[in-house]
Design goal:
Layout (H helix, E strand, L loop, with lengths): L2 E4 L1 H15 L3 H20 L5 E2 L7 E6 L2 E8 L2 E9 L4 H12 L2
Helix pairs in contact: 1-2
Protein name: Toxin ParE3
Pfam families: ParE_toxin
Organism: Terricaulis silvestris
Amino acid sequence: MSRIVFRPEAEADLTAIALHIAANSAARAHRVVTRLRSRCEILRQHPLAGRPRNELGEGLRSLSERPFVLIYRTMGDDVEIVAILHGARDLPAAIARRIDRDDP
């Protein structure tokens, strides 16, 4: 069984999603964040459930929870959640900014 690790940016994504939705409905924001976290938990048992997204970065995969997209990668026994973004965003640009920060 894999361990789920959220990058700080992915946690920030969840917070931003919650705050945005909570402006209209705190209950809905809670439901959406719970649904997104549950979707991430699927990866604990099935780390390769998402589709390969090498165009976003080597080894990256995505799993949809509409309208959001979970971007992650497997690292040994861990699943690292890289980002949780709205599917209408420019995913390649958003992910490139995050991956570029990882480079020395």
